[in-house]
Specification:
elongated; single chain; alpha+beta; 2 strands; about 55 residues
């Protein structure tokens, strides 16, 4: 019996945009990427002194 290894991953060609920052979001994105998806992570801009209320 010969076992063949698939040459393509199941989610190859799928594009995912991730906007989440809690634990479940990045972990899910990692799993999707491990299965071949192209994951684009969008992070919020860094808070500036004016935006955070500090003076």
């Amino acid at each position: 019996m010969t076992h063949t290894i698939p040459t393509t991953l199941p989610l190859a060609g799928v594009h995912v945009v991730e906007f989440c920052s809690t634990a479940a979001g990045p972990f899910s994105a990692m799993l999707l990427a491990d299965m071949g998806a192209n994951v684009i992570k969008v992070e919020p801009p860094p808070a500036t002194a004016c935006a955070s209320g500090h003076r």
